[in-house]
Amino acid sequence: MSAELAARGLQADAVPVEALIGEGATAMTLAGEPRLALAAALTAVLAAPLVFALLALAVTFLAPSHRPDDLRRKREQREEVTTAKEVAPQQAG
Questions:
Q1: Residue 39: closest CA among 23, 67, 13, 20
Q2: What is the distance in angstroms between the CA of the first residue and the CA of the last residue of the chain?
């Protein structure tokens, strides 16, 4: 938030942070540049988790929806095929 205030040409104490948290937060009102600085700072802080959550949601929808038993059966079938291919040349010889 200090960076946002400085970018707008305001001192860091232009927004009384203690008044924004705790019991007096509901009575505190900001106007003008301090309000815009607070909004920009909150946007920056909340944007990264939002992007991460959306990416996690996308991965969840794109992930295969197989049960563990199905995956185990497929792996066992592959192992059986591999074993059969290895045994066949030995029996022929």
A1: 20
A2: 77
